[in-house]
Amino acid sequence: MSKDFKIMFSTITLFTIGIFYYWFFRDATIISAYLGISLYPKEFTFFSIDWFPSFIHQFSFVIFTWLVLERNYIKFSLFFWFFLNTFFEFGQALSSKYYGYFPKIITTYFKHGTYSHKDMLALVVASFLAYIVMYKNKRILN
Predict the structure, then answer these.
(1) Of 23, 52, 83, 97, which one has the greatest count of Cβ atoms within 10 A?
(2) What does the domain layout of the chain look like in residue ranges?
(3) Side-chain half-sphere of 11: how many Cα atoms within 13 Å?
């Protein structure tokens, strides 16, 4: 079994756990409402780690991007997703007077999201852990 396959399988597994956590324990989504599971009490939120999906998203997408780029471009993979996720997180804290500068789909996300310092910390920690994984498994270029 190749190293790339092991890393990809582990990352997909972690990402899948993140999706299930989001479906079952976050605020109601279209999918959870359709499945009738949006009524679980908020106290049952896996020890209130509401930052978990942000962590999983950052870590998984950094690793996915790095693998697609053939285990090269560590900095690009890290910074692209860190800045993109940071933009969307800070956008949730924007005043509505700035919404006109963005496309409607993005302002809809900003309106319905909630800025969280815990999400920002999750992005930093996930980036750091992804860096360790990538550094220890980087491809040596000749």
Answers:
(1) 52
(2) 3-136
(3) 23
